[in-house]
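User: Please predict the structure of the protein below. I'd like the answer in structure-token form so I can feed it into my own downstream comparison script.

Assistant: Understood. Taking the following sequence of 143 residues as input:
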Amino acid sequence: MNDITVSCAELPQEPDCAKIEDFCDRVLLLEGIREWELSVLLCGNSFIQALNKKYRGKDEPTDVLSFNQNQNPGNDGLFTAGDIVISLDYIENAADLKRCLVHGILHLEGMEHQEEGEYREMIDRQEKILEKLQDELPEVYIE
């Protein structure tokens, strides 16, 4: 069983975190992952911009950041995969949120897109997952 935690920072109104946790779990199960610990932080542009500057040297907001932890299973048997940070100011709707969640999970699985071939492979996989889960995560608050 996966352990997914969704939290919020600096948002005027919080979305339905339980729906987002459920969606992430569906993505993980579709990927054959059943023993992950994963956290998702939903924030605004200023929060993600500070992280983007600190960790990537880019002083600008972005839609999604992933931070791999790759920690071996602890006493609870869960693999600590990492953290996904998404700016709700940057994205426009629930479809964008789903895309960012899947993209972040694929990064935590080890996929990268530094080169064109890697990018195409990652985006193809992302879109296939989204197609399979198109009816998941009905509209949630995003302003």
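That's the full token string. The mean pLDDT is 89.
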